[in-house]
Design goal:
Layout (H helix, E strand, L loop, with lengths): L2 E4 L1 H8 L6 H13 L3 E5 H14 L3 H13 L4 E3 L3 H13 L7 H13 L3 E3 L3 H6 L3 E2 L1
Parallel strand pairs: 1-2, 1-4, 2-3, 4-5
Length: 136
Amino acid sequence: MNHVFVDSGGFFAHLVSEDALHARARELFAQAEREDWHLVTTNAVVYETHALLINRAREGREAGLRFLEHVQRGLCEIVHVTQDDEARAISILRDHQDKTYSFCDALSFVVMGRLGLNEAISFDRHFREYGRVTIL
């Protein structure tokens, strides 16, 4: 079984038909379903996705609630970040001062490393810049 991390941009593009990357995201999620991928994200990405939806999607409040309901029904595994993950993420931010990674991005990199995940559904250039992740 293929274990794949999902970033907020992946969720957003999949859920918002007006997003420029919606078609690609739909393809990836359809492939994930066909091939029985095990999708993984963090609680931080869930918070970020909800915030993106309520602030940027048409009918954002409803879209945000639908997303949370899908998460509750098992859309993907939610891994909760630990204090150690947070400390490591801050180290990444310090070590990569030439980058504009968000704290959520750095947490994603740390959790992916901790879980041995190297593939992600993401449209965030920071995942490419980090260079240790294969973007699907």
